[in-house]
Specification:
The chain is α+β, with helices and mostly antiparallel strands and about 450 residues long. It has helices at about 15-25, 45-50, 60-65, 95-100, 105-110, 115-125, 130-140, 185-195, 240-245, 250-255, 275-285, 335-350, 370-375, 385-390, 410-460; strands spanning about 1-10, 30-35, 70-75, 80, 85, 115, 155, 165, 175-180, 200, 205-210, 215-220, 225-235, 265-275, 290-295, 305-310, 320-330, 360-365, 380, 400. Helix 1 (about 15-25) runs parallel beside helix 8.
């Protein structure tokens, strides 16, 4: 195999699907190399994560529905506090909002996208107990670590001084999530193929070399047809840890001897809800998805902040099961005893939500059953901003990166936002490339016509 490709995306678990699909819709040829098989035996729920999504574009909806069933929670995003649940699109949402002491100004901030300096001053004047919800809206899916009180960060987005909250999620919007399944990754690749993306599955990347003559990148691949792929642009839809897992030699070529590791990770437990008939009836009424915070003034980590999502395969069973996601320090990721002890704290917090409820452990995080060599990097990592600032890319020409290390948020919105920026860059590159090609062809045609006229004059003379 000796192939020449314009754009190559190296992807894991469907991460590059949206980027590939949008490029091919623009008429730009794309090859997607799937390396998911390198990442170990993850369950689909671990791959999908617990974050759900709010307002997205039509093409992004198309991507999310391409490989999994998408569900919308009728009463919207649910935040469960000591005082009970706050469902942001329910009939009593405004009453609960006021009862919690939140001012109308706070709702305006969460619902807005851009802010002027005067509006920022107004938000800054509010004490934390009056505005912590705005902090949570930025904090919950952040990809870089910060304290809850420092989670609001701004980007200046226009010349008139308007600013934008980084990673802000509008809790008042319609809220949806996906039903993860074992066939999701395969369905997503088939969807890409149907759109015209060239997909190569189960690829092993043996080497990467920059071609000084063409300015492109040569990828040595091992597939059912081994060989070299010559690419003009390569997008690694992988974290540096994932690249290291696939091929440490390639990772060293891209980043040198430096390694970037997360500070925190989101990890999943599964529990079965048990109790008498009245408890069972109450559990049937629980929101499918909710975020439980025990104390909003303590760090939003460990058992103090739990994202709960109903396990869909338990729908036809006597007792309902939920997946409980918690934020854990990365260095404790494979500490089985620590994770077992943490479960008891999580279960106790959740049992307090429904009188008489008992939650039996059904499944610990996969890290308790596997080694790093078997499982690979975490699916939902959170990084130190200082560490990311120090990261150095050895090469930049023709190489792009698209992973949680580069997103502002671990949510689907964060992924799509970053990919939209990549799409713009790649579209401009393709347009310039095509314009240059057309100019060359026009020049060649002009030279041929001019040469033909000179030949005719010679014959006449």
């Amino acid at each position: 195999m000796d192939l020449r490709e314009a754009i190559v995306i190296i992807s894991v678990f469907g991460r590059g699907n949206y980027l590939a699909s949008e490029l091919v819709k623009m008429g730009i040829p794309v090859t997607l190399l799937d390396v998911s098989h390198h990442m170990g035996p993850w369950y689909p729920e671990d791959i999908e994560g617990p974050f759900g999504f709010f307002q997205i574009s039509e093409s992004q909806w198309e991507r999310l529905k391409s490989d999994e069933l998408t569900l919308t929670q009728a009463e919207g995003f649910c935040l469960w506090l000591k005082t009970g649940p706050l469902q942001f699109r329910s009939l009593n949402a405004q009453h609960r909002f006021s009862a919690l002491g939140f001012e109308h100004l706070l709702a305006q901030f969460i619902e807005k996208e851009n802010f002027n300096k005067e509006q920022l001053k107004n938000l800054a004047k509010l004490p934390f107990e009056k505005k912590w919800l705005a902090h949570l809206a930025c904090y919950l899916t952040q990809s870089t670590e910060s304290s809850s009180s420092e989670s609001i960060k701004w980007n200046e987005v226009s010349s008139n001084g308007m600013n934008q909250m980084i990673g802000l999620r509008n809790f008042f919007h319609e809220f949806s999530f996906r039903k993860a399944s074992n066939l999701g990754v395969a369905r997503g690749l088939s969807w890409c193929e149907a759109l015209g993306v060239k997909v190569i599955r189960d690829v092993e990347i043996k080497d990467l070399v920059f071609d000084s003559q063409t300015g492109g990148i040569n990828l040595e691949l091992k597939t059912d047809r081994p060989g070299v792929m010559h690419a003009e642009q390569v997008i690694f839809a992988l974290t540096s840890e994932e690249i290291e897992k696939i091929n440490s030699k390639v990772n060293k070529y891209l980043f040198g001897s430096e390694r970037t590791y997360p500070e925190w990770v989101w990890m999943r437990y599964r529990g079965e809800l048990t109790g008498d008939e009245s408890v069972a009836a109450m559990t049937q009424q629980l929101p499918f998805h909710f975020v439980a915070i025990d104390n909003e003034f303590l760090p939003w980590t460990h058992e103090n902040c739990v994202i709960a999502l109903r396990a869909f395969e338990s729908e036809n069973r006597e007792n309902i099961e939920y997946d409980y996601w918690v934020k854990v320090p990365h260095h404790l990721r494979f500490n089985s005893q620590y994770l077992e002890n943490l479960w008891h704290k999580v279960a106790r917090q959740m049992e307090e939500k429904v009188p008489g409820l008992k939650i039996e452990l059904k499944e610990l995080p996969p890290e308790t059953r596997s080694t790093f060599e078997e499982l690979g990097p975490a699916r939902h990592p959170i990084y130190s901003e200082a560490v990311l600032r120090q990261r150095v890319h050895k090469f930049s020409k023709g190489i792009y990166f698209d992973s949680p290390e580069y997103w502002t948020s671990l949510s689907w919105e964060g992924q799509f936002d970053h990919q939209e920026k990549l799409l713009s860059n790649l579209k401009n590159w393709w347009r310039a490339k095509e314009e240059a090609r057309l100019k060359r062809e026009a020049k060649l045609t002009s030279n041929r016509v001019g040469g033909s006229r000179d030949f005719d004059k010679d014959l006449e003379s």
